[in-house]
Design a protein that fits this description.
The protein has a 3-stranded antiparallel sheet, with no helix packed on it. About 45% of the residues lie in helices and about 10% in strands. The chain is elongated. It is mainly alpha-helical. The longest helix has 17 residues, at about 35-55. It has helices at about 35-55, 70-85, 90-100, 105-115, 125-130, 130-135, and strands at about 10, 15-20, 25-30.
């Protein structure tokens, strides 16, 4: 699944790994320079380019085209405070509170997405307990998917 890959591979001896941005698990494993050095380098360049071009694994405010309500944001905040250590996502909670004050403000939504993208391994718990973030990957609200 390319949607979570880091564009910078890890090389260990004769192996190269493209790892998950969420849990740092190796998702694509390649033998370095197979079938030959030129073909390998071309494939790796292509894969890195595709990951960067499409911002795989990155939330973006422009992916959310449906309206956001104060209630959605407040519910998200409560869920995160209940199930995730608030200190580990303090900046995210601050940006969500700011968005709650003005749920239609695209700049504030962009800031929430930016902070989320910088969470590293904390992205997993946030996605698990706050479905709102999944809607930033979609162009529709979860309620519209029923």
């Amino acid at each position: 699944m390319l949607s979570v890959l880091s564009p910078e591979p890890v090389v260990e001896g004769a192996m190269m790994y493209f790892v998950s941005e969420v849990n740092r698990e190796a998702l694509i494993k390649l033998f370095v320079d197979l079938p030959d050095a030129e073909t390998f380098a071309e494939f790796v360049r292509f894969l890195k380019q595709r990951i960067k071009e499409e911002d795989f694994g990155q939330l973006a405010a422009e992916h959310r085209t449906s309206a956001i309500t104060k209630d959605q944001v407040d519910t998200t905040i409560r869920m995160l405070e209940t199930y995730v250590d608030p200190e580990s996502i303090e900046e995210l909670l601050l940006t969500l509170r700011s968005l709650s004050d003005a749920p239609g403000d695209h700049d504030r939504l962009s800031r929430v997405a930016e902070v989320f993208n910088g969470l590293g391994v904390q992205q997993g718990p946030v996605l698990t307990y706050a479905p709102f973030f999944n809607t930033l990957l979609l162009s529709t609200d979860l309620d519209e998917l029923n």
